[in-house]
Structures are given as C-alpha cells and as structure tokens.
Amino acid sequence: MDLIVTLQCQDQPGIVHAMTTAILDCLGNIIENQQFTDPTTNTFVMRTRFETGLSLHDVNTKLNSVLNKFKPNLSVRSVSEKKRVLVLVTTESHCLRDLLYLQDLGELPIEIPAVLSNHGDLKALVESHGIKFIDQSGLVKDAAEAQLRTLVGDLKIDLVVLARYMQILSPGFCGELSGKIINIHHSFLPGFKGAKPYHQAHARGVKIIGATAHFVTPELDEGPIIDQDVAHVTHAATPEELIATGRDIERRVLSRAVRDFAQDRIFIVGDKTVVFHN
Amino acid sequence: MDLIVTLQCQDQPGIVHAMTTAILDCLGNIIENQQFTDPTTNTFVMRTRFETGLSLHDVNTKLNSVLNKFKPNLSVRSVSEKKRVLVLVTTESHCLRDLLYLQDLGELPIEIPAVLSNHGDLKALVESHGIKFIDQSGLVKDAAEAQLRTLVGDLKIDLVVLARYMQILSPGFCGELSGKIINIHHSFLPGFKGAKPYHQAHARGVKIIGATAHFVTPELDEGPIIDQDVAHVTHAATPEELIATGRDIERRVLSRAVRDFAQDRIFIVGDKTVVFHN
Amino acid sequence: MDLIVTLQCQDQPGIVHAMTTAILDCLGNIIENQQFTDPTTNTFVMRTRFETGLSLHDVNTKLNSVLNKFKPNLSVRSVSEKKRVLVLVTTESHCLRDLLYLQDLGELPIEIPAVLSNHGDLKALVESHGIKFIDQSGLVKDAAEAQLRTLVGDLKIDLVVLARYMQILSPGFCGELSGKIINIHHSFLPGFKGAKPYHQAHARGVKIIGATAHFVTPELDEGPIIDQDVAHVTHAATPEELIATGRDIERRVLSRAVRDFAQDRIFIVGDKTVVFHN
Amino acid sequence: MDLIVTLQCQDQPGIVHAMTTAILDCLGNIIENQQFTDPTTNTFVMRTRFETGLSLHDVNTKLNSVLNKFKPNLSVRSVSEKKRVLVLVTTESHCLRDLLYLQDLGELPIEIPAVLSNHGDLKALVESHGIKFIDQSGLVKDAAEAQLRTLVGDLKIDLVVLARYMQILSPGFCGELSGKIINIHHSFLPGFKGAKPYHQAHARGVKIIGATAHFVTPELDEGPIIDQDVAHVTHAATPEELIATGRDIERRVLSRAVRDFAQDRIFIVGDKTVVFHN
Q: Does domain B2-78 sit in CATH 3.30.70.260?
C-alpha cells in the first residue's frame, strides 16, 4: 500500500524518531517526508508518505500505539482513497469548471458527489458531467443550511469548496466544519471594501490583481491563508478585463488549494497554514 | 536629435493628427509612439519618441504652435538629457544601492547630485560613489524640510526618490512637488496597519510579499500607483527572511519606477498612472 | 461602429499622419493606437481602434484612398466580427478545453465552426459543446490534408489552431496558410530533441518548464514566436507532474496567443512577431 | 550550537530512524528537516538542522558511529561557520556586485577572501570592499590555472563562483573541484549557439529571457542545474535592453544558487540537483 500519514502535536523531543521507528516496524519505505515546527505556537507538523505490505488497519494500530503518547492529531490514509468534495456555486462557473477539468484529467484526486447552488444557472453544466446538482434557489437561508448540513453528513463530505459561492454561511456551520471549508476571493494591493472591488481596483489604478484561497472560520473575516497568486495588469485594462484576469487567477489558486488539501499537504497551525508543496 | 515628446490634455478629435503633422513638419522620424485615453476622466496622454535634424528650440516652437489649441501639458526633451534625482534615505541601503548600481551600469538615465538623510549611517556608502551626502541628523523637522526645499531648487531636481526614507514630509511640501516624489513601500494581501508589518504578515501566514512604488500626494494615504510586484513565500520563512525578500522586491520595483520616470513613461491621470512600458 | 485597423508596410515618413488624417476624415474617435517600427527590416506596423458613425465600407474606401500610396497590408474590421477558428486536436484535450471555456465566458471573440482530429477520442467532448467534430482517424495523410484544405475554404476559416495536434502538416499546406496556423509546444531550458521531452527534462533536472505559441511555417522548424511562459518546478516533481504542469502552461499560452490573434494584435515581421498587448 | 547535517547515500530502510536516534542521543532539537529519495538512482539525501548542547566534535562522533553503516557522504557544520568563496570575474560586474551587496546586508553567509580575474577592470570595485583582487591579466592559461589551484588550497576555498568569468577552465581542474564550481549563464527558448546570444534571441523574437545557475563539470557542456529563472520581454526591447534584462536575471539566479550552497541546501544526484528550499 501507498500511505500518507499526517501528524500534528505540541513539539517535543523524539517525535520524528518515534514515527520512523513505527514506520520501520511496518517494514515501510519512506517516499516523501516533510516536517515543520511553528516557533510561535511550538506546534510540530509532519507529513510522511510511505509504502508498506501491511494493511491500513495494522499500520494505524502500530502508529497509534507508538505515537499516542504525544497526543497527536494523527491520520493515516491510502493515497488511492479520494477525498469527497462538495462544491458550492452561485452563477459564476470558472472555478467549478477548472475543478471538473482537472478531475477529468486525473490531476485532482477528489470525488465530487454533488454540486449545490443557491441559483439554478449551472444545473446543465454540472449534470453534463454526470454529477448531481442540488438547486437551493427556492429555499430560505436556514432551510438551505440545514439541507447542506445533512448533505455533508450523508455524502461523507471531507471538504466543502466555495467556488464563487455568493451566500454567507452561518458562524455555527463554519465552526462545525472548521478546517473543512475552502473559499476563494479576490485580493488587491491595497485592499478594497464594499461592492464591485474590481471597479474600485480599476479606479485606483492597481498594477496587480490577485486571489487568495483560505479556510473559512467563524471568528475571522478571513481564515488561514492556503495559497495566493497575482497577475500584472496595466492602465489599459478595463474593469471587465480585470475581472477576466481575476477569474483566471481565482480558478488556478483555488484548484491548487483543493489539490493540496486532497493530498493532505495542508495543516492549520494557529491562524496560519503550513503547506508542504512538492 | 533623439527627442521625447509627452502630451496630456482633454481628449478631443484631431490631437494625434496635429501631433503627427507637427512632427512631419519637423522632418521627424517617429521611433516610438504610445497613446491612451482614460475613459473615466476623458484625459488623453501621448508619448512620442522621434529623430529630427532640428534643434530642441525649433521643435518646441513648432509643436507648441500646432498643439497649443488643445491646452496640453506638453514637454519636449532630448533623450540624452538626464533627469536630476535627489535620493532621500534613512538607514536602509538596499534601494539606494540598486539605483547606484543601475546608474553605474548606464541603465538608469539619471544624475544624482546628492543623497540626503535624516541619519548619518549611509554617508560612507554615498561618498564612495563620489556623491554629496547631506546629513540632516541634527536638524528639527521644519529646518530639514526648509533645507530640502532649497536643495530641490538649487540643484534643479526633477525627481525626489524616497528610498526607504522613514520621515514624513509635510502635506505642503508634497503638494508643491506633486508628481515629483516617488516612494516605495511594502504591500501585503491583506494589508496591515501599524508597526512591524512583516511580523504581522508572518503572524498571518501570508503566501505573498509585495511592494508598491507610488507618487506621494498630500491628500491621500497613498498616491497614484506606478508599479507593483510580489514574491511567493512559504510558512518556513522567518520574519527576517520575509524582510529580506521584501528588500529584494522593493529595490526592483523602485528602480523600475525611477527608470520609467526618467524615460518620461509615466503620466498621472486622476488618482491613477498611465505607464507606457516598452 | 467600433473598428480595428491594422497596417503593415515599409517605414517611411507620413504614415501615422496619413492614417490619423483619414480617421479624422471619418469623424473617427481613436480609442487605442499602437505602432512599432522594426529596425532590422524597417517595417512599420500599426493597430488602431476607433469609433465612427460611417459604415465599414465607407471607412475602407477612405482609408485605402489615403493610405494606398504606402503599399500597405491594410485591414479594417468591426470589433464585433468574430474570427473563425478551426481547431485541430489528437487525443489531449487540455488546450481545446481552455479555448472552449474562454469562448463560453465570452472572453475569446472567436467562432469555432468545427474541430478536426486524426483520432476519435475527443468526439463526445466537442459535440457536447454543439460543435461539429470531423473525425479523420480513417484517412491517409494526403486525403486528410485535402479535406482540411477544403474545410478551411468552405468554412471561411481565419485561423487554424493546432491544439496538441500530433500530425505534421505538409510544407505546402503551411505555406498556403502562412501566418494563419498557430501551434503550441513545450519549451525547456536547455532544449531537448526526440521523444518524451518531459522525461528528458526530468532526467536533466530542469527547474523550469515552459511553453511557446508560434506560427507554423514551411521553412523553419519553428516559426515566429507569439507568446511564451514558464513555471518553476523542483526535483520532487515526477515526469507525470512535469507533464501536468506543462499542460497548464500550454493551455494558458495558447489561449493568450489565440486571443491576441482574434483581436488583431499580432503582426509577423520577418522571423518575429510584434504583439500589441493591452 | 545550531548545526546542519547533510547526508547522502544509497536509499535503504532505517536511515531516517538512525539519524533521528543519533540526534535524540545528542539531546538535539530538530528545527528543519528535509529528505528526498531520487527514484532514478535510488539515492537518499537528507538535510537536518538542529540545536544541541554538545560540541561539534562530539556530535560528529555520535552521528558517524550510528550512520557509518550506510556508507554515507556525511557532513556536520555549525550554522555560524561561513563558506569560503572565491569569485572569478572578467569585466562584467553585475553578478559580483549582487554577491557583495547581499553579503554586506548579512543575507549571504559567505566569506570572500579574494576575487580573481583575467582582466584588471574590476580591481577598484573589489578593493573598495576591502577584498583582495588577484589580477591574472598577464598570465598564460596554464600559469593562471596553476595559481588558481594553489589559491583554492591556500585560502581553504569551499566554493568557486564564476560570476561572468569568460575563461574556460580545464576539464582536469573542473574534475578536481567537482561540485564546488558554480557558473551562471543565459538561457533562451529556443537555445542559441555561438556568439552574441542576446542578439540572436532578439533576431528570433523571443518573448522570454532566462538564466541558469549550474555546477561546472568536466564531462558535460552544462552540469547539474541549480536554479533557473526568466523575465518576459517584448518586440520593443533592443538587444541592449535584452542584455540589461539578462543581467538582472543572472545576478538574482546566481545569488540564490550561492545562498543555497552556503546553507548546504544543494545535493548533486546523478546529473541533477536536489535543492531543499525553505
């Protein structure tokens, strides 16, 4: 089996040694290994990919018996087991399309059992990919969120992706799914508040358009940042061209964040993320 | 002669035609020509580089006689005439060094008759380049600004560059030199207020570090943006490493902005700039 | 009407003046104007976008009467008139998908009357977009090219896009459609000859993966370059991951090149292109 | 003490476990740890930074006793111990200046005991930094290389940097210093052979200018690649402007490569490098 182990706990001597002892004990051959200690919170995180002849159950037992003393947040998963992703959209399709496209190519190890929307616009697109489309356009907000909560449980969802979903989720729901909701939003230098941010950016003459993928949290305006990118623009770009450029960055940054999540590369440490890129 | 003409006025029919008529009348051969109409303010800007056998004086006369009816902001300059730049610094040298380095290489068509500072730290560096160092470390703010104002006049300064100058200039002075002071500052997504911005950015786990070169204005926190750039960073970077990355972006962005100014490529239109890159 | 004029001819005094005279005569209001003189070939190129109340026919007549003396390659086109594009594919879909996606969003002013392939794999994808799929998988090369030639005429094709088309077109055909066939191919530093270039790049440990969009010519291995871009990679990327990164760059670079073509921004000057980005 | 251990050997089970056992035995606290197995050569490389109260000598003894069975290439070094670098230049100063600038800022943990040149041009620049300048302009090639070989020994040089050194070193010398000579050179897509590469790139209309830092080897035209980067250029850039852009990329890429070497981040594995960026 090809397995990925992730571990997060307070930093203390002996963790890596214990982990490698346990993997050696599984006759495991380490393929990738990354670790980091966050000095601010003294948190240790580690991601190890290894091959072993043992079953997932046996590996889990061995690792837990050796590592439990560190009180870790520990996960062992087969590389072939895909994360189950529920995508939430409104009317804009660019982020959804990129996820579907990369999934079709086999570059995104996720399954999308359903796409949910507060509008009906993207029904045909979603169904043309053989994916269930859940139309909440007639529902009031409380009923919509109740249905969403049920879906997350029934469909065994690992990750909710807000792919330009223009509806605010309640703090309660965000809290329940802490670390399991990823959002994408535009980012400018300087930042702009209020409506029509690309028009504001145009009025201000920015030379850069950006996007940020981040986890959604109940407490913060904007949760831990996962990935960011920008594109250069000039005075000649119209607001519509800035929006088009923004779409291109948004889809790329969101897809990268979802891929990193799907490959267990992201750790939330305090208000930040540790992302082990390959 | 190799000349650069810049023109800015309200947009109206016939400007380009009038300009090209005038240049043709100077037996001029156009090498570069760029123009833009800002739709928000209906402002027309144009930069034309051409070769002619006529003198600067004669070209000026001809162009003015043909173009005056558009009430333009018109400038004609020989490519070989260097802009005179006064650089203001405090203790950090990275931006100053890059300007000196590019000037040494002949890539920055500017003359730096003096560097002024509110600290003495960079005296030796400046003087080793044969440039006068004006040390204002003992002066109170009003006296310092009065001396600065005198210098700008006496040294026939075209541009004041704040190369990590950690002193605030008065609104009055900024107003007098409107469009003639360029500043560089760090930029983050999201933005941070207050002290130690790189430490805040580190605490927030940003994945991008940026810098913005802009004109200094009395009214705005941050005047028209000239250029911006970013670098990618990871969770592993310490605040000190973020600062080092920031330095690298700052010096590059500021040097590019100064070069664009030196080549008459920048126009201020409302709160924005038009920059004609080549 | 919103029109785009493009002009290419030997450089000589008075061209811009003549053009602006003619546009003024059409009561035209210039929105964009870019020009360049290539010093090597002394070729002058110009792209002007302007609004006028006159008809396309009348503008054409006026411009030709004024500009004919320069023996230009002159084109006048309405911005609303879309270029007709024939896309050629084999089995890889990433470039085709990006073109279809951008076209759906309205960001690519092209019409795709048909997609032609030497394989049947992408038939369902193409037809799901309501586009005719021409399957040449049973044809020998001569018959295939004959059919292609007929299609280009019958469908009034302005541009043939080789979107990972793994079949070599004859020099004769490339010559007939000179300047009307765009290809995308991977680019590495250093370059690699022969099969499996991404595996060679992996073996060589390159830190950058790139792609080049270029015109196809009969004489050269690789015709005039339109656009290029790269992505950074590390030692940890497998050949498959390099290929995935390559796909992402290829689709972006090809789509940008097709957009620039569709907006009349590209001029072929000798072995090079002039591309007027906005 | 703050130590960096690097290890390279054939991959086999138990290496990480043995290393972490040894570090735990040194009462070491791991700060950074990165490892990689190259699947082609089955080579394992590892870089670990840790703090310990033991002396360098004692750590060395412990690590060797535990790890010797893997027949590793093992190095233990104090972070505060700077690599000794001999810089070779000809007439171009941009790469040398960037190294000196970053060293001045404390961002490059190296010592430069001397700069050697086959020309006298950069003598004043080097000496103004208090560094010894060795002028070989009068020497024949054999004598020059003999002196260079002696210097490398006498000055205890860890790394020779060819900072635009326009003289070819003999295969013998390159072999003796295998893995200890870094060169920078321009890189284009496509590549160009022969003189005046920037002029060739200009003639070919490339849209990207790049640079590659690599180890110098006797066997290959171009040894293992350490780092690469590019900048976008347009048709409007003259050959001189391409050269200026190239200088900017060259100095950045070379400085990054030297920094990675100075921090023990680079491993040569077959024809490739593994570089552990932070």
A: yes
